[in-house]
């Protein structure tokens, strides 16, 4: 089963992100606005409960932390993705690292750049237009992250939530 | 916040349902295939944690139970909805009743007909064609339900998972 791990920000942020995603993000209908903590990884169906157990342990080790969004940014020229930039903080980075080490080790050369995608697969011209406007805009959201979700992907590319993990107050 | 409560069946059933929903269900991109336990209800944002607490209590009172799908069916003539019929059983009915009494009391005159919608908003002709074919087909799925989810609705009509509730093994 293809799994992924993500934070869903508050409805307010999701509605804000969707106002852009509707026009600019080809994944708009596949998953709600999210911050990816771990990209697609394969889990055998009979291994899912042991993955869940490990994730509960990890969640218990990290207290709820702030999520701050400060501006629009982009991965250009590496890719044409436009996103809401999430300010890195120690808890978020620690959580990411735990989800990429031990039983969750994987080969990745990407640095962690926490973000909520709002545009992708745009033509170069469209990218320049849209990003040119967005990067001048002020954005400010601040809230507390107290949970993350394990999701699995259906054959049509969409994602279904499997389990919720609460930061700090887990029983392991 | 508009909330709802649903069971997501296994990936296998969801993929099967989506093969029809893609063509016949206008809600295809708003939510993965699901069995609705409680239709949209309003929860104030500062009340959500007390709702969550109540739902954990209810989940703890019901053991995991079988989900059996036996055929396609329809609400015609009340509506043109086509669905995968889920065999009622005592646990499922008890769960439904608990989600519609006490703090979750609501005015409803509908009997509980457990189902997974695969078609809606079809014209009369299309409905007759599609349902005429589907109702002759054999379907058989059987699995165990061990959880349900509280979801909330975004402004675009799509649903985001908020929390998972495990049947039986909850700590309340």
Automatic annotation (TrEMBL), chains A, B:
Residues spanned by motif HXTX 1: 34-37
Motif (HXTX 2): 115-118
Keywords tagged on the record: Hydrolase, Ligase
Enzyme class, broadest EC rank: hydrolase
GO MF annotation, one: ligase activity
InterPro entries, per database record: 2H_phosphoesterase_YjcG-like, Cyclic_Pdiesterase, YjcG
Active site: 34 (proton donor), 115 (proton acceptor)
EC number: 3.1.-.-
Family according to the record: Belongs to the 2H phosphoesterase superfamily. YjcG family.
Name listed for the protein in its UniProt record: Putative phosphoesterase EDD69_10413
Organism: Thermolongibacillus altinsuensis
High-level lineage: Bacteria, Bacillati, Bacillota, Bacilli, Bacillales
